[in-house]
Automatic annotation (TrEMBL):
InterPro entries: NST/OST, P-loop_NTPase. The keyword Transferase applies. It comes from the Bacteria. It comes from Qipengyuania polymorpha. This is Sulfotransferase domain-containing protein. Keywords: Transferase.
């Protein structure tokens, strides 16, 4: 076990690609450990001086003011109670899309294991927009308009809402491939949902921990995006999100987390399907990016061509 105070492995994304399911699988394993905050995002701003922002309801705010674990002491404090025999994990899903983060992690943990889950970029982009809308992090009620802002460069430093660029996986993976080499594991969202045990076996082997059998419900997609059309429901989620920033440990306790998620599910509804026109448009946009990813990984992604 490393004597470094920094985590041993990092699940770097992609956002809305099943990372919560992966974390829940590992949290049930005594040889892997996560703090109560799944996504501290400490390394996102560690060596990045750009003016990143995040919408919080009706206002755009500096991202640094909304990340409670920006300081090294606050971040490392999350891992103070980790069992000595367990591997410590950080599952910050925006690490993938910031070109400074791989170098920042490598500077502290050149031996770190890096895990990434990739989902078809069109499906991921739409799910991310629905998720951001429900959390008050995107003011636009039209996905088409949000994509338009991405195309026009209006979201280059918008945290988690630059949907189009976040799907350029080959570009985002390159710094991690260059720095971490064989210590990078790529998982496909489709495999995680359809073959969770096989994915879990690959993951535990990669991390060097013992294999375990998963419960039957492990294939379910955790943290799936829901639509909150009711203003009261959105206000409830916004309030809960702000309270969670003040007391994140309490909100991660099963006593609070499960009732909160159940209530949110009742208040929300399954989002409308992405329009065929927009799906066709985004699929066409991502076709060359998928080809670059296939070349980068050295393997085909037949299920991604449609």
């Amino acid at each position: 076990m490393s004597k470094s105070p920094f985590p041993d492995f990092y699940i770097i994304g992609a956002a809305k690609a099943g990372t919560t399911s992966l974390v829940d699988m590992l949290r049930a394993h005594e040889q892997a450990w996560f703090p109560h905050e799944k996504e501290p995002h400490h390394f996102f701003l560690r060596d990045d001086s750009r003016a990143w922002t995040l919408r919080d309801g009706s206002r755009e705010k500096p991202l640094a003011s909304l990340l409670p674990y920006g300081s090294e002491s606050a971040y490392l404090g999350l891992y103070r109670d980790a069992p000595e025999e367990a591997l410590r994990g950080d599952a910050s899903t925006q690490y993938l899309v910031n070109d400074t983060t791989a170098k920042s992690i490598h500077a502290q943990r050149p031996d770190a294991k890096i895990v990434v889950v990739l989902r078809h970029p069109t499906d991921r982009a739409y799910s991310a927009w629905v998720h951001a809308r429900s959390r008050g992090e995107d003011a636009l009620a039209s996905f088409d308009e949000a994509i338009g802002e991405c195309e026009n460069g209006l979201r280059d430093t918008a945290f988690a809402t630059n949907y189009l660029a976040e799907g350029d996986y080959a570009r985002h993976l390159k710094p991690y491939q260059d720095l971490f080499g064989d210590n990078l594991l790529v998982i496909l969202f489709e495999d995680l949902i359809q073959k969770p045990q096989a994915v879990y076996d690959r993951l535990t082997t990669f991390l060097g921990i013992e294999q375990r059998s998963l419960p039957d419900n492990s294939a379910s997609h955790k943290n799936a995006s829901i639509e909150l059309a009711n203003p009261v429901a959105r206000a409830f989620r916004m309030t809960a999100k702000r309270l969670r920033r003040m007391a994140p440990g309490i909100f991660e306790l099963p006593l609070f987390r499960k009732p909160y998620e159940a209530l949110l599910a009742k208040m929300g509804r399954k989002p409308e399907k992405l329009s065929p026109e927009m799906r066709k448009r985004l699929d066409a946009y991502y076709t060359p990016h998928i080809a670059k990813l296939e070349a980068s990984l050295g393997s085909d992604l037949p299920g991604w061509h449609r």
